[in-house]
Design goal:
single chain, alpha+beta, two-stranded antiparallel ribbon, 2 helices
């Protein structure tokens, strides 16, 4: 299995699509970046008493059309 993150794989797909569409390089650069990123660590006490820490992410890519819809990933 590849060590690429889901984000890295999404960027590869974006690059492929941009090449096929002959996308303007400036627009491609904008689409590669996010507007806001929030990372949180949530500690959870497991049934056996140990503590596991889970990471959560919320990313907003463009709020130009109004508030961004979010959710748990």
């Amino acid at each position: 299995m590849s060590k690429d993150s889901v984000f890295d794989m999404a960027l590869e797909q974006l690059d492929t699509a941009a090449k096929r569409l002959k996308l303007n390089p400036n627009l491609h650069r904008v689409l590669q970046t996010c507007e806001r990123e929030l990372t949180v660590a949530v500690p959870v006490v497991m049934n056996d008493g140990r503590i596991e820490v889970f990471k959560g992410y919320r990313v907003q890519h463009c709020s130009a059309r109004g508030p961004c819809k979010g959710g748990i990933r």
